[in-house]
Design goal:
Elements: E1 4-8, E2 23-26, H1 36-49, H2 51-55, E3 58-59, E4 62-63, H3 69-81, H4 83-92, E5 96-99, H5 104-113, E6 118-121, H6 127-154, E7 159-164, H7 179-187, E8 192-196, H8 201-211, E9 215-216, H9 219-228, H10 241-247, H11 250-269, E10 272-278, H12 285-293, E11 297-301, E12 329-332, H13 335-344, E13 353-355, E14 379-384, H14 391-402, E15 407-412, H15 420-428, E16 436-438, H16 442-445, E17 451-454, H17 458-462, E18 469-473, E19 494-495, H18 501-515, H19 517-526, H20 532-539
Parallel strand pairs: 1-2, 1-5, 5-6, 7-8, 7-10, 8-9, 10-11, 11-12, 12-13, 14-15, 14-17, 15-16, 17-18, 18-19
Antiparallel strand pairs: 3-4
Helix pairs in contact: 1-3, 1-10, 6-9, 7-20, 9-11, 11-12
Amino acid sequence: MSNNCLVTSKLEKPSTINRQIANVLYIEDYQSIASVLDARKLTDKVFIHNANFIADYDYNGYKITWSWYSDIFQFCINYLEIKELIQAIDTLDIQHLNIGNISPQYRRVIEIYFFDKEITFQQTTNKTLIFIKEILFNFTMLLFSMISIIFLALRKKKRVGTYTGDFVYKNTKSDYRLNRLYEKYKENSINYVEFIRETTINNFFVNIYKRKRFAIYYTSIIYFVNLLTKKTIYRKKPIDFFQSILYRYHQNNSVFIRSIPLIEKILKITKINKFVLISFSSRSAHLAMASKSLNIETIGIMHGLQQKDYAVYEFMESYNERKKIGCDIYGVWSNHYLGYFQKYSKILNPNEIFYSGLLRPIENCDSKILFNKISSKKIKVLLISEPLISVIEIIPYLQCLLKHHDIEVAIKIRPMIKDIYYEDMLIKFPEINNLKVFDGKIEDVGRDFDVFIGSNSTAVIEASLFGKISILLNTKKFGDYFEMNSLISGHSLLIKDPENLYQNIVERVNNEDTLETVKKIRTKFFGENKDGAQWVVEQL
């Protein structure tokens, strides 16, 4: 039996690998694509397995450990991606593990799974320098937040708290997803203050200048609470993998409980009387708990096509606590989603879920519009960028499609940020260089195409809002994500074989008048394209 093992990457320089280590495993040889369904089921097992740990952390009746549900879900995805590697290490029956140059999320999986073994990590970064940069940046955000709090406190106005990321898209002065809501705030003279999650140094300074208004970077507060909270471990040692996963959140829970009273004070000082959280997640949990403790009503609304096996933070199917941690009032896009959330979401009160409409209703959208092919010569297809998907799964579909001269393909990339999907596609499939690329609003770009294709993106389904055909591609990660196989009896709207994609597109285009898939998809997912931003304002 060898007593040690090295796990590293093929990108590691051979000269840095210790030749005295008998077992060297390269992570690239064992990686695979994980199913979100499998990850969600595993996440539920983790929480069911740790009922006692969950019960130990209570804030005014709320079991705060559930706040990390989406984090655990992502951990489970990472675990499933390297499960074969974990099994390979297990078969070696070693006592000491050396972890080399691999991604941090996979390092964490290995560390937690092998909690009872000696593990040595290769130092790849200057931790001291990183710490100095972190503390200086968080102090800067905290200072700006304190100035904002003082200014807001001096003005005797009640305000709506609004949770957001640190985005300013072109001329909107906000995250483009919230632009319609901000317009409604202005129309109705609603005073608001943004509570902004973590950001980058560049975004912080640039966006302060662009917004030209005070805001609160609340994660900087949590950062310093964490810095000043004594590091401890849970009173019990884990005896298995499931316990090892959740017991690591002991410190997070301790910081959480210390942070909430500070957030509560800020809400009082800034005169917050309602809070638009959009959704509950680990990133908004501190704001949610503070609001609930002060009886400040929290309002949420769908911000994408949220399915229970990926948008797990809105559902938490294993949640069984008396007090609901989700938003007090929640808006959904259609009658379908009204029933869907009432059935599957365990963190929302079923009686407080309403048919609100879309946070960003599609402008100039005629609910009666029918499919009309753009050109008689070619079928124009728009591939939607999906950063959550491995491009390796999409390339076979694209290869088959590009063989046909009566198909014209373009790609829609994401605005505001660097599109990692497109960047990766350029590396692994250089032929994409020949395709036109668009980064504008989907309602502007999409009108010039016949068909939208993708795996899990809301934008693929949004095609129906302006009379376009949606084609869903089967991937190992998402499968039949939108449950499209059941939409039309006897006719699958999910493509499982790349070789069938072209023929399916042609059939859908030629037979849409009979199939009416555009109408059926539009009705199911979007209802009447109602103005959800107006609904939010009505709640305020």
